[in-house]
Each structure stands twice: as structure tokens, then as C-alpha cells.
User: What shape does this take?
Amino acid sequence: MLMNLIKVSKIYRIGHVEVLALNEVSVGIDRGEFVAIVGPSGSGKTTLLDILGCLSRPTSGDYWFDGKLVSRLPDDELTYIRNRKIGFVFQTFQLLPRKTVLENVQLPMLYAGVPWKAQRHRALQLLRDVGLEDRAHHLPTQLSGGQQQRVAIARALANTPDVILADEPTGNLDSRSGQDILGLFQRLHESGQTLVMITHDQQIAEQAQRRVMIADGRIVADDRASQQAPVPV
Ligand SMILES: Nc1ncnc2c1ncn2[C@@H]1O[C@H](COP(=O)(O)OP(=O)(O)OP(=O)(O)O)[C@@H](O)[C@H]1O
Ligand SMILES: [Mg+2]
Assistant: This one.
């Protein structure tokens, strides 16, 4: 199992107010799965994705990633895992506006210490894969939203992560561009990439392989069982 949460709770404290954002969530995600996380606003989806991505720690409970108990690792090791093993995609793309498309895709490799020529070579290949090679020297603002999100996905793939985590990746896109992004995710899934995606959009969620539904900080539905291939007799 690539990611395994065991009775994970997350409490946010602001002054005297406590918010129980996740309430003893246990869930496992295998390599190669394409999972959609769905649920109402404020139910804890982003909180869950942040923990999966080692952006924040559980208040209690354990999180195992790739055989490591990351909930107990020091910050520098979490940073390393985030950079090398996890690719992030956000609703608002989060590209650096003063860097070219190519430089944006190179950035995670720069942080990882990849030699410059290899960075360039891989970034161009990734841009080719997402159909944007001809935009390599443009600035992000010169691209459409759907194109910017494809650049963000190329960037997320730069260090060949174990998993892509996406928080509402189609939330700022028209339905046509959203569908293009879903098509790209499905292609990645078919090539073996593990993907976890939050979405409000029922039609988008239906195209994932598995849906995990959250309400009030708890998992209330998970159709994993029905997705498993029947055991041959
Ligand atoms: N940094 C924070 N400090 C305090 N409370 C927070 C923080 N982040 C989230 N919360 C609270 O935790 C709960 C879960 O929030 P979360 O962002 O995970 O929800 P969500 O399911 O992603 O919602 P949405 O669909 O609106 O993005 C909410 O009640 C929210 O107000
Ligand atoms: Mg959210």
C-alpha cells in the first residue's frame, strides 16, 4: 500500500475555538489507483489531502507513506518526501508568473539538484506529453486556464512522483477544459500513475476509478470494494 492513514484526526485550534476537521479517518490507497475525494464544503477534503501530501501532520493517528511512518518524521525528511515523491496540482494552478512555462516545469528538478541540461530535456519532454511544447517560452499569463493547468501537471510530474495530489484541479476551468484535464489524468492512470483528486463535480468524480466520500470529517462512503476485479475461480 502506498498511503495508509490509521485513525487520523486533525484539530485546528484558533484561540479558544477548536475545529475537528478530521475525525479518526482510516483509509488506504494502493499504487496505481485513481481516487476521487468528494464531499460538502468544509467536510475536511483539503485537510485530508494536505496530510496525504505531508503538508501538515495529523493531530493524532498514524500516516504511513511508502512504508515510512511519516507522521513521526522530522520536518526536513517531510520536505524531502514532498519534493521527490509527491506532485501537487491546485485549483488556481500556482505557477510562478515571472518564470516561463519551461522554467516552471524545471523548478522541482532545480530544487532536487538535477543537472540543468537534464532539467531542460525532461521539462521539454513533459511539455510535449501535455501538448504544450510550442508554449515553452511563454509566460503563464499568456496561456488559457486549461493550458496553465496542463503546465502545472507537467511540473507535478517533473520528479516522477509516487503520487499526484490534486485539489479541485478543474474547479477554475470551463467544462471543456476540465474534461481535457480529466483525459490527461486518465492517460496518466493508464500508464500506472497513482492519482488522488478532490472534486465537487459529480461528472468528474464518476470518471475516477474509486470515490471516497467525506462528511463532517469522516469517511461515509468508499466504493473501492465494488471496483476490485472479481476473484477468478
Ligand atoms: N487552517 C485552518 N485553521 C482553522 N480551521 C481550518 C483551517 N483549515 C480548515 N479549517 C476548518 O476545517 C474544516 C475542514 O476544512 P477543509 O478545508 O478541509 O474543507 P474542504 O472539504 O476542503 O472544503 P471546501 O470544499 O470548501 O474546500 C472546516 O470547518 C474549516 O473551516
Ligand atoms: Mg478544500
Observations:
- The mean pLDDT is 95.
- The domain at 3-223 is CATH 3.40.50.300 (Rossmann fold).
- Residues 12, 14, 19, 21, 39, 41-47 surround adenosine-5'-triphosphate (ligand 1) (CB under 6 Å).
- The first helix runs from residue 45 to 52.
